[in-house]
Inverse folding.
């Protein structure tokens, strides 16, 4: 069976990107990482990708007058890499509705909360402020509405006494690095499909 072609979008260090790249180096993993794109020219994750022989592209969103114009460059880059699926790994940009819609059913994201709880920024602090006894991470399909796509896979992490947003985030991240590669494999194998 030929492996599906996956691109990863990052804005920073890309620790989830690294987890996906590491997973895809296993010969029996059903996907290969064919490119990494960043909206930050100095994103540390780009070096990790290059060190693993993966093509990279970096284009600043600040050089574009509109969200749509920047998204068109992302789309062109993905087309050049002949991508089947896209994984967002700390990509800190909101897409235009048209771009998100075009990739519905082929674009995944990971979010450090048990969606639909605590969408948006600082979800770990949101969990603490809400008095939650557990948090975790969610791999979900990307749709035009932020952090609102159907769930693919979740992992739960207990909130411990004395947790700060940082300590909780660290423990959630450990689960993210296991959950994201597992979720991508399930999607690529066709075990989980976009609803409808």
């Amino acid at each position: 069976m030929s492996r599906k072609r996956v691109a990863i979008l990052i804005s920073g260090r890309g620790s989830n990107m690294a987890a996906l790249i590491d997973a895809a180096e296993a010969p029996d993993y059903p996907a290969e990482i064919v490119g990494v794109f960043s909206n930050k020219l100095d994103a540390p994750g780009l070096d990790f990708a290059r060190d693993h022989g993966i093509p990279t592209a970096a284009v600043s969103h600040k050089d574009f007058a509109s969200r749509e114009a920047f998204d068109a460059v992302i789309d062109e880059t993905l087309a050049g890499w002949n991508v089947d699926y896209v994984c967002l790994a700390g990509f800190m940009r909101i897409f235009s509705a048209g771009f998100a819609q075009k990739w519905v059913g082929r674009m995944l994201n990971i979010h450090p909360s048990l969606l639909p709880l605590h969408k948006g920024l600082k979800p770990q602090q949101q969990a603490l402020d809400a008095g939650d006894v557990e948090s975790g991470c969610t791999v979900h399909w990307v749709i035009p509405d932020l952090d609102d796509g159907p769930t693919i896979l979740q992992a739960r992490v207990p909130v411990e006494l004395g947790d700060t947003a940082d300590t909780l985030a660290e423990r959630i991240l450990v689960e993210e690095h296991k959950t994201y590669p597992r979720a991508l494999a399930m999607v690529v194998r066709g075990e989980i499909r976009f609803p409808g």
User: Anything to note?
Assistant: The chain is about 35% helix and 20% strand. The chain has a mean pLDDT of 97. The beta strands are 4-10, 31-38, 56-58, 85-88, 107-111, 134-141, 151-158. The helical segments are 15-24, 44-51, 67-80, 97-102, 123-129, 165-188.
